[in-house]
Amino acid sequence: MAEAMLETDSISYNGGIVACGKCGHWQRALALFSEMSEVQLDPSAICYSSVINACEPGEQWQQALSFLGETRWRKLDVNVHAYGIVACMCEQSGQRKQALSSLRALSEIVTE
């Protein structure tokens, strides 16, 4: 019997990132996200939104802020919810400057 080859794509990775995030396994979600570049897949805006969501249970505001910056650099439109999560995580961690910065970035996008 021939062995079936499964093709992975950004949708498959995104499913794994979402599942890990919902279960609180943020470290695994981040590992899956970084694995995408190893297999030469460019993460979509949806993947970025998912990995930002996955950062929340682990209170990984710095990582989430970094991902948000990458989306702006790559000119990807992540959903508004991702900006809100980053702002809330920064605020809860006492990082008001970063929280305001992410909200300003959101307002720039909304007004464009």
TrEMBL record:
Q: Which InterPro entries match?
A: PPR_rpt, TPR-like_helical_dom_sf
**Where are the annotated PPR repeats, by residue?**
9-43
Repeat recorded as keyword: yes
Q: Which UniProt keywords apply?
A: Repeat
Keyword Manganese assigned to the entry: answer is: no
Q: By what name is this protein known?
A: Pentatricopeptide repeat-containing protein
